[in-house]
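== Fold encoding ==
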Amino acid sequence: MFLDDPIVGSLTILDLIAFLIVLVLSVILAKGAYALIRRVLDVRITKKRSKMIAKFTQYLLIIVGLYIGFWEILKLDISAFLVSLGVIGIAVALASQQVIQNAFAGILISVTKPFEIEDWVEVGGMPATGLCRVKDVNLINTVMRDLDGRILYIPNSFLIGNKLINYTKGGFVALTVPVWISRDENVDRIARIVMDEADKNNFILPNVIGEEKSRINKLLELPRFKTLFEGKIDMNFFNPQVNVVEIQGTRTKLAIKIWIREINRKDEIISTFLKNLRERFEKEGVKLVDV
């Protein structure tokens, strides 16, 4: 039968067919195992750990399939394979330098962990990504979703070589809002109004209650926060501030500094705060000045 006839050495067409079947089955089995493990573990442990276990199992099954295919079915000569691998490796390395860079960068990211799945981050460089949420991290690239719903596939080497801001690990972020008032206005009075309006907003620190307040207190006890803030801090650290930053003729520029937790809702929080602040200014007779 022609299927049993050797085509290269002792290799037959039947061997090649068996090899392809094993390879396809190992890939199908690996993908099925990945999906099953995610379905079972996602509700029992964190998604990050669930994905890590599923990925490890997937790669392991593929490696086992390759081993069976090359060494058990094709009867590959290991010594000859290693010799040829050296020559082929040089050619592949030259042809896929960018892929190798991304792979090494992916390994560095997995070791140093500058971000994790579902973290809110911003990547510098050209072009900058803007605020994004990390959705997936693999060996070659990192998948993110921006606030406009776009999916970004960013090479890992780009992440390693550029500035990356992790808002989730930071825990909270300060926002500065400029306001121009008449020179005749009392800055202390303005500060009291700002503090009062900020205190009414549940998304502006330190005015948080319940579980959110407990969560922040736990964050402040973490060693990394104590190091960053050079000692122990409490909720009073997040009190809004009103500073005079510029005076021009008959007008004064104030910088209102507030702290928030949810960076992805930044625009919404600022918009609501400024709307309420403007209504309060009108009610109190505070004169705002056009820029």
Remarks:
- The mean pLDDT is 81.
- The chain has three domains: 2-95, 111-168, 171-284.
